[in-house]
Protein: DNA-(apurinic or apyrimidinic site) lyase
Organism: Kribbella antiqua
Amino acid sequence: MPEGDTVWRACKRLDQALGGQELIRTDFRVPTLATTDLSGRTMLEVVARGKHLLMRMSGGVTLHSHFRMDGSWHLYKRGERWRGGPGHQIRAVLETSSWTAVGYRLPVLELVATDAEQSVVGHLGPDLLSPSFDRAQAIANLEADPERTISEALLDQRNLAGIGNFYRTEVCFLLGLHPTRPVASVDVAAAVDLSRRLMKANLRNGTQVSTGVDRPGQRSWVFERAGKPCRRCGTTILSASIGEPPRDRISYWCPGCQPET
């Protein structure tokens, strides 16, 4: 699932291409928006809120999308061949005089009033990548349920927005925390600060790296490395689903570096 840094980079590219430009054609291929025509409106800005993408347009409307597991927005120069996937996976097409933005496999695509954006993102905690990130509030949100596992608490977007499975897994490893450790036994401030630092560093990379080595197969300490030896101690990395459905996710950890007690 794309995480906050992936969505942030997508928003930056879209905003640079579409911001301030008039839409000359729109095509929506989802039932709820099938008859919607936004041509003639100006794309004011494209912003990220956690893992949510908000396209604000003139006339007080916002196109809200969420990537979930494999959604994406692709940008093409006018006349350029589209390469994001087969046509039946396209959910939206937005055209300006210079660019075409194509939304593929978007499970969430809806139009809301700009002054009612809170109806779709109001449940989110502080955004880790926001310049105005509220660190104290994020810490307080996490500490509000001291018996919850740190793994579940970090992934809950109501506590802090943007962190996904890669970051919560790598942060737990780097801090020596078994993913089932209760929040009450964790330095929550350190977990928040490290999460933000990693995500901000990766904004420049275009990839998600926690090891400092940006090469295939070497970017993570434990994420998606179940059955392989730990890069630090050689212990075999384990994995398991942690949390209650539908929020459960596969977590990875090293039993040597991240003892259960």
Summary: The chain has two domains: 4-121, 135-253. The mean pLDDT is 94. The longest strand covers residues 42-49.
